[in-house]
Amino acid sequence: MARIAFIGLGNMGGGMAANLAQKGHDVRAFDLSAEALARAEQGGCLPAASAIDALEGAEAVITMLPAGTQVESVYSDAVFAAAPLSAILIDCSTIDVATAKRVAEAAQAKGFAVVDAPVSGGIAAANAGTLTFMVGGSADAFDRARPFLADMGKAVIHAGTNGSGQAAKIVNNMLLGVTMVGTCEAFLLAQKLGLDAQKFFDISSVSSGQSWSMTSYAPLPGVGPDTPADHDYQGGFATALMLKDLRLAMEAAQGAGAETPMGARAAELYERFAAAGQGRVDFSGIIRLLGGK
Ligand code: NAD
């Protein structure tokens, strides 16, 4: 069992840190929020007075922070100053690819092994320890990070070099945003053409229009498996988080000179939905923006 510094104990990090503690690790936890810190203590972690304090003697450093700015500042102000050089650095936050690569380069220049390891799965998966991790880094750094990630998830996949985990995450979520908007449109058009929604689901979910958005996350209540649509679009994956990932994808596409017209359109629609005060609503609720009831 290892000593782990865990920084960022919010909706996701709180459950992840608790799972590591439950697996027997010595988890030194830090968050700027006293409330988050208290929850981590209840989950079996040892609360630290500062990030520097949490980092002392750490064998692994895990960060789960809102965005690239926080990751960059925690790394430059605390991790580089106080983490032992022997520690494996694992950033699980979803951040922009450019910052992920910059942080990794800075860490490697100082002699650290580092990976980006963003997650698929929401708060429920973080609490249950069933996240999927997509990991960017060298084969050696991946091997060192894997056992810690395995203690918090059901799958740990090596995506490629540093930054590849973030790339996989935002490209996957861009595709998810696009297929969700398309699935919503398809259901609404089907209704207007007089097709029964359940019949359309039965056909499309085993036909070529099939996608995860259709079969596992149908955006209409009473159709397909139980989804947030059956709970007034509460729970699930918040529109604000989908928008965050789409913005990251658009930023990355621009930087890489990639044409992503469908991703851009999905980002625009989620932008409008969030601006209408629906940021906390599940992302499948976008069907309402498109004319659904
Ligand atoms: P959150 O806002 O609930 O938690 C972030 C935590 O970081 C907060 O508790 C905040 O106080 C803390 N923090 C911020 N700056 C800090 C600093 N300098 N030092 C210490 N602590 C600091 O966010 P979340 O929902 O837990 O998401 C975390 C990351 O995971 C994000 O990058 C998000 O995009 C990604 N993610 C979230 C979900 C989800 O469903 N919530 C799913 C997949 C990925």
UniProtKB/TrEMBL annotation:
<keyword id="KW-0101">Branched-chain amino acid catabolism</keyword>
<comment type="similarity">
    <text>Belongs to the HIBADH-related family.</text>
</comment>
<dbReference type="InterPro" id="IPR013328">
    <property type="entry name" value="6PGD_dom2"/>
</dbReference>
<dbReference type="InterPro" id="IPR008927">
    <property type="entry name" value="6-PGluconate_DH-like_C_sf"/>
</dbReference>
<comment type="pathway">
    <text>Amino-acid degradation; L-valine degradation.</text>
</comment>
<keyword id="KW-0520">NAD</keyword>
<dbReference type="InterPro" id="IPR006115">
    <property type="entry name" value="6PGDH_NADP-bd"/>
</dbReference>
<protein>
    <recommendedName>
        <fullName>3-hydroxyisobutyrate dehydrogenase</fullName>
        <ecNumber>1.1.1.31</ecNumber>
    </recommendedName>
</protein>
<dbReference type="InterPro" id="IPR002204">
    <property type="entry name" value="3-OH-isobutyrate_DH-rel_CS"/>
</dbReference>
<feature type="domain" description="6-phosphogluconate dehydrogenase NADP-binding">
    <location>
        <begin position="3"/>
        <end position="160"/>
    </location>
</feature>
<dbReference type="InterPro" id="IPR015815">
    <property type="entry name" value="HIBADH-related"/>
</dbReference>
<dbReference type="Pfam" id="PF03446">
    <property type="entry name" value="NAD_binding_2"/>
</dbReference>
<dbReference type="GO" id="GO:0008442">
    <property type="term" value="F:3-hydroxyisobutyrate dehydrogenase activity"/>
</dbReference>
<keyword id="KW-0560">Oxidoreductase</keyword>
<feature type="domain" description="3-hydroxyisobutyrate dehydrogenase-like NAD-binding">
    <location>
        <begin position="163"/>
        <end position="290"/>
    </location>
</feature>
<dbReference type="InterPro" id="IPR029154">
    <property type="entry name" value="HIBADH-like_NADP-bd"/>
</dbReference>
<dbReference type="InterPro" id="IPR036291">
    <property type="entry name" value="NAD(P)-bd_dom_sf"/>
</dbReference>
<dbReference type="InterPro" id="IPR011548">
    <property type="entry name" value="HIBADH"/>
</dbReference>
<dbReference type="Pfam" id="PF14833">
    <property type="entry name" value="NAD_binding_11"/>
</dbReference>
